[in-house]
# Entry
Amino acid sequence: MPSAQDSAKTPAKATRILLVDDHPMVRERLAEVINRESDLSVCAEAEDRHGAMKAVETAKPDLAIIDLALKNSNGLDLIKDLQARWPRLLILVVSMHDELLYAERVLRAGARGYITKQEATRNIMVAIRRVLGGNVYLNEKTATSVIARLTANPRGEEMALADTLTDRELQVFELTGKGLNTRGIADQLGIDVKTVETYRVRIKEKLDLKSSSDLLQLAIRWARNG
# Structure
């Protein structure tokens, strides 16, 4: 499996691709598909923010394929960090997260496309080629939703809630709905417990929730509908 140290072995004319995902089997599957293409090569892999930043520095990829849920870190934050330091790096998100909720956020952060892992097997090369060609990749359903939002066509409670919360607040809210406690959320996002508690207070204020129980119930309902 290619790594940052193996980058020197990558053919000079091939487009260099970095895979960032905390599941080795996912990276292996993506690398297998990508490396079949004569003009593409996986030059490095990483499972978290630190590894990804180091890999970009060392392997100098043209495109980074990033999951939103990473080991001890968050893909959305990584996208912002990468774009701040390497603005010419192309980024494609491949994730399990709800694309209707996260697609617009990752585009705003600097990514050039979003594809779910369910789609990736059959459409990953289409997405990669689209992004490398200077275009944005979204599936038809997601593209329609993003256009509707950008033209100020609200879609009810789900979209209103998404617009109300910041990226980090939404991450805390979503993880709450998935059953993680304060410590679990802190570990997942790489922040301390007090910071998670502060975010929860802000979420309750923004959503006009009276108690932690109200927050939990709404978060669980959101997670089930997502």
Summary: Confidence is low (pLDDT under 50) at residues 4-8.
